[in-house]
Amino acid sequence: MKNIYETSPFATFFPAEKAQACRAKQILSFRVNAPIQRPTQRLYIVGSVEALGCWDVEKALPLTIESYPYWTIALDMKSLGDEFEYKFIVKESGNVWWEEGYNRRYFLCGEQGSEHIDAHFRGQFGWKGAGVAIPVFSLRSNQSQGIGDFVDLKKMGDWAVATGQKIIQILPINDTTMTRTWKDSYPYSSISIFALNPMYLSIVELGAKGEEIEKVNALEFVDYDAVSAIKWDFIRKEFARSGKRTLKTKAFAAFFEANKDWLKDYAAFCYLRDKYQTAYFEMWGREKKYSKKLVEKLTSESFEDYSKVALYYWVQFQLDRQLKDSVAYCRSLGVVLKGDIPIGISRDSVEAWSDARLFNMNCQAGAPPDDFSADGQNWGFPTYNWEVMAQDGYAWWKRRFEKMADYFDLYRIDHILGFFRIWEIPMDSVVGLLGYFNPAMPFSYDELAQRGMPMNRDRYLLPQIHHNYLHEYFGEEDWTPYLDYKDNGYYSLKPDYDTQRKIREALDGVNEKAMRALYGLTGEVLFIEDPRKPGHFHPRIAAQQTKSYEWLSDWEKERFNELYNDFFYRRHNDFWGALAMEKLPALVDATNMMCCGEDLGMVPDCVGPVMQNLGILSLEVQRMPKDPTIEFGYTNRYPYACVCTTGSHDTSTIRGWWKEDRATSQKYYNEILWKQGIAPEELGGELCATIVNNHLCSPAILTILPLQDWISMDERLRKADIDSERINIPAIPNHYWRYRMHLSLEQLLEEGELNATIKSKIEASGR
C-alpha cells in the first residue's frame, strides 16, 4: 500500500530541515513516524536521564523533520548511559501532547557502538487538511477577462491562507477548443490530454487592456463566445508582435525540448482544425490520416504556414509559464493544487487522431443510471482498448499522469470505476440505458437455460410495444407516424425510427415529446446481446422499470431478478478487481502525487479493497452514501483515507439540494441535524454552518468543500439566486458550464468575518 504521507503535498506542508550533525563517536539515532497535523507542531524526545531533560518537557530535545512524516535525531550515547526510559511528545504554543502507552526503555546490549531505532508515535496524530473546490473558469478577480485564469489562482491561494486551507481543487484544464463557441465549455471533453486550455491564459498579464475586457469581466456568467473572441484576437496580435523573439529564448527552448513529443502533434492538429474549420478529422481530406511524416512537414520551419503552427507552441509556452508561476506561488504559501484526470478522451482529439489503436472508436463511454441521471449518461467518448495499452505497460497513461505532476500535488481520477469496467454504449444509442459493462461475463444460451430463463430473442431482445401502455409514453401525441402495427395489440418501430440516433436526427428540435417517448420505447427490452460475443447476453440495466418486465409472469420475474442481481452485484467482483489491479498500481506509482478516486454511482464491492490496497482516497458525499441501506452518510463514520465533501460540480449546492425535495430535507433536518419540528424552506446560514462543521469534524484526511458551500454560512454574502450557483446538470448532455463567483477574489479577501469564521472552524476541527 502506498503511504499517503509520503506523497508530494507533504513536501510543501512540511518542508525538510537540515539535521544537526552529532560529532560523537558512538551515536544513538532515532527515526520516528509521526504524522503531526500542523507545521507549528514539533516533535520532541524527553526521558529519565539528564541528557533527555529528566522528564522536564521544557528541556526536551527537538527532532528534525527529514521528509514528512519522518523525524530524526542523533544523540551521543555516552551522555545517555547504558539504560534509560523515554517518550516522544508534540509541542505547540505551550501545549504538550504525550504519546500514549508505557514508557519506552533502552538497554545497551553488548559492546557500545552506533545504533539506530525506528519508531512510530503512539497516538491520534493523523494529519488532516481542508480545502476549497472551484473550477478555474469560475474564478473572478479585478484582473480577470470574463473567465478565471491561471494567474487568478494566486489570489485563491491568498484566500486559502487567510482561511487556514491547504488545498485548491480544480476541474480539468486541458484544451477543449473544437468549435470556439460555448460548446467548448465542457471541461471533460478535451482535444489533448497534455495541452492546456487557452481560455485560461491571462492576456492582462501579457499586457492586454480595454473596455471590452472590463465589459465581459462585469458579466454574471461566463460568455464563452465573447471571451474566446477577445482572447484569440489579442493572442494573434501579440504573437505577431513578439512571438518570434519568444520562440528564440532559452526558456522556450527548454519548454519545447521537454514537451515536443506531444506538442508537435498538438500544434499540427490545431493547424488542421483551423484549416478545415472542424476538429472532426474525418473531414480533413487526405490529411485525416495521421502520420509522423505529415506532422514533421507541418511543424517544419520551412513550411509555408509555419507561423500558424508555431502560434500554438507560443500559447502553450505562455500557459505553462503562468500556471507554473501560480503553482510555485501557492506552494510558497503552503497551499497545493489538486487536479482532475477525466476518464475519457474526445473522439475529436489529438490522441484519437494520432493513436486510434488505443481506443474503441466504434462505441461510446458513459455511466449507468445513478443519482446524477435516471437515464444514465452518454459521454460520447470512445472506450479504451486496454489490451493494446497493456502491451507497453500502460505508457500512455503514465505519460498523462507524469504531465499532471508538472502542476499538481494531488489529483482526482474521474470515474475511477472505469479502470474496473466501463459502461459502453452502442453508437446508435443517445441515452445510456441500452449500455453494458465492458469487460464483462455475459450469459450464454446454455447458462440462461440452465438457470431457468432460456433466451427468447423476440420477447427479450426486441422492444415490447403494446397498445395498452402507449398512452403512458405519448399522452395525447399521435404515435402512428412512428410505429407499425403487428398483431394482438403489439407494434414495432418503423425502420426510420428503430434506433435512438435515427430518432434524434428526425425529431430533435421538431417534436421533443415524441422523441423522448420513442427513446423510452427503444429501451423496452430485457437483455442486450454482447456485440463482441454473439450469443451472449447482458441483462438490461434497470429493466425492472420497463413494461416488458412488468408483463412477465411471476415465475419469470423471479428468475430474471436472480440473474440480474447475480450479474450486477456478485458475478464480476473478483474479475473486475483483478483487472483493476493489472492497471492501477503502475499508474499510481508513476508519480508521487496523492491519488483520489471519484467512486460514486454503481460501485462494485471490489472497488473499496483495491483503492485501500493502493492508498487511493475514496470520495464521500453525504447525500450519496456508499451503503445502499441508508439515505444519508454519517460523517463521523467516514474512513480516514477519504475526501469528504458536501457535493461536487455535478450536484447542486447544499442550499440547492435542500430545496429539491422537501421530504428529503425534512428527514435530514430531523435525523442528521438532530432538529425537531418542521424544517425551514430555505437553508439558513446557521444550519449551513452546522453542515460544514460536521464535515470538518469527520475522520477524513481531507475535507474539500465547494466555494459556494463555504460562503453559504454567511447570509450577507451568499448569492440570492441559489440555482445560478450550480456548475453542471449531468442529465443535460449539452449543459453550458459558465458559473462564476459573484464576489471577486479581492472582495473575498476583505471579508474578515467570514474568513475568520472559516479559519476558526478549521482549526477547531484539528485541520
Rg to the nearest angstrom? 29 Å
Question: Can you tell me the residue ranges where pLDDT is under 50 for at least 5 consecutive residues?
Answer: none
Percent of residues in helices comes to: 25-40%
Q: What's the number of extended β-strand segments?
A: 29
CATH topology of the largest domain: TIM Barrel
Topology:
Elements lengths: L8 H5 L13 E7 L8 E6 L13 E2 L1 E4 L2 E7 H4 L2 E10 L2 E4 L5 E4 L7 E6 L8 E5 L18 H12 L3 E3 L41 H7 L6 H23 L3 H27 L15 H7 L7 H27 L3 E6 L8 H5 L4 E2 L2 E5 L9 E2 L4 E2 L1 H5 L4 H10 L5 E4 L8 E5 L9 E3 L4 E2 H6 L6 H4 L4 E2 H8 L8 E3 L4 E4 L6 H8 L4 H11 L4 E3 L6 E4 L7 H4 L3 H16 L3 H16 L5 E4 L9 H8 L3 E4 L20 E4 L8 H7 L1 H10 L13 H12 L5 E5 H5 L33 H6 L1 H13 L3
Parallel strand pairs: 1-9, 10-11, 10-29, 11-12, 12-17, 17-26, 27-28, 28-29
Antiparallel strand pairs: 1-5, 2-3, 2-6, 4-5, 6-7, 6-8, 13-16, 14-15, 14-18, 18-19, 20-25, 21-23, 22-23, 24-25
Helix pairs in contact: 3-8, 6-7, 6-8, 15-16
Structural features, described:
The chain has 767 residues and is α/β, with parallel strands linked by helices. The chain has 4 domains: 4-127, Sandwich (Immunoglobulin-like); 130-354, Glycosidases (TIM Barrel, Alpha-Beta Barrel); 424-567, no CATH class; 618-764, no CATH class. An 8-stranded parallel β-sheet has the order 26-17-12-11-10-29-28-27. Strands 2, 3, 6, 7 and 8 form a 5-stranded antiparallel β-sheet that branches. A 4-stranded mixed β-sheet has the order 4-5-1-9. A hairpin with a 4-residue loop joins strand 22 and strand 23. Helix 6 (250-276) packs across helix 7 (292-298), helix 6 crosses helix 8 (306-332) and helix 15 packs antiparallel against helix 16 (512-522). The longest helix is centred in the middle third of the chain and has 27 residues, at 250-276. The protein is globular. The model has no long low-confidence stretch (mean pLDDT 94).
